[in-house]
Amino acid sequence: MGRITLGLLLLATLAYSKEWKLHIGGMHCIACTLAVKKALLGVPGVKEAKVNFKNETAFVITDETVTLRSMQNGVAQTGYTAKLAP
Predict the structure, then answer these.
(1) Average confidence score pLDDT of the chain
(2) What is the pTM of this model?
(3) Tell me, what CATH number does 46's domain have?
(4) Looking at the domain assignment, is residue 9 inside a domain?
(5) How far apart are the first and last CA of the chain?
(6) What ranges make up the beta strands (E) of the chain?
(7) How far, CA to CA in Å, does 83 sit from each of 7, 13, 40, 42, 57?
(8) What is the three-class DSSP state of 73?
(9) Are 24 and 79 in contact (CB under 8 A)?
């Protein structure tokens, strides 16, 4: 019974995941990517963040409660900018 409940909970979580591609401004090195990743992972509801300074992008997986503004605020606290990437 516990496995079934856990499985259903996992499926429900996956169903409400959202993927974001962000353009991150101001990154210059690997240390920058680590700071941005840490900031994004510090936003409640962010499940995963992959940051690439060369492309100035971040790929973020969140739950349904996360907004662009909450991620922008988290990134801004580290001195960088974030906006939706095309």
Answers:
(1) 89
(2) 0.81
(3) 3.30.70.100
(4) no
(5) 44
(6) 18-25, 46-52, 57-62, 81-84
(7) 34, 25, 13, 17, 10
(8) helix
(9) no
Residue 44 lies in a domain: yes
Could you give the CA distance from residue 40 to residue 63 in angstroms, rounded to a whole number? 13
Alpha carbons 40 and 81: distance in angstroms, whole number: 12
Q: What is the pLDDT of residues 32-43, one digit of tens each?
A: 999 999 999 999
Q: Could you list the residue range(s) of the whole structural domain that residue 41 is in?
A: 17-84
- How far is C-alpha 19 from the chain's CA centre? 8
**Strand pairing category for 46-52 and 81-84:** unpaired
Q: How buried is residue 19: exposed, middle or buried, by Cβ count under 10 Å (0-12/13-18/19+)? A: exposed
User: Is residue 4 assigned to a domain?
Assistant: no
From CA 84, how far away is CA 63, in angstroms rounded?
17
* Count of domains for the chain: 1
Half-sphere exposure of 76 (CA within 13 A, CB side): 7
Of the CA atoms within 13 Å of residue 2, those in its CB half-sphere come to 0
Domain-located, residue 11: no
